[in-house]
Amino acid sequence: VQLQASGGGLVQAGGSLRLSCTASGRTIRGYTMGWFRQAPGKERETVAAIRGSDGSIYYADFVKGRFTISRDDAKNTVYLQMNSLKPEDTAVYYCAAPEGPNPGSYFPYAYDYWGQGTLVTVSS
Q1: Is 21 helix (H, G, I), strand (E, B) or coil?
Q2: Across the strands, what pairs with 6?
Q3: What CA–CA distance (Å, rounded) separates 34 from 58?
Q4: Which residue positions in the chain have pLDDT lower than 70?
Q5: Could you give the CA distance from residue 56 to residue 37 in angstroms, rounded to a whole number?
Q6: Secondary structure of residue 61 in the 3-state scheme
Q7: Radius of gyration of the chain from Cα atoms?
Q8: Which residues have CB under 8 Å from 2's CB, separation 6+?
Q9: What is the DSSP letter of 64?
Q10: What pLDDT does 104 receive?
Q11: pLDDT at 122
């Protein structure tokens, strides 16, 4: 499974970005997909995840009300709409997929396939 993330860039605080992650080598239909981020000097953390079986969604507390995860199984793509961005959102954002349909956890360790990451920089 190969994952290609895109859409990062430089934005001012309060601005918006939309990240995309397109998978190849396997359908995402029926599989949970997640977005994660890693800031310099910090551990990788979960941002959001969306289940393939029922579409249920998990958001980290620090993005609730600002970020929206969605998926288009026909395009084999997952999105992360990021609004009201803050300087503390600056990080490399990664999409990831588990080996099986449901990883059993929203933590990064439960995911097996990772994209290359896309850098999001939010200026104050």
Answers
A1: strand
A2: 20
A3: 9
A4: none
A5: 20
A6: helix
A7: 13
A8: 23, 24, 25, 113
A9: T
A10: 86
A11: 98
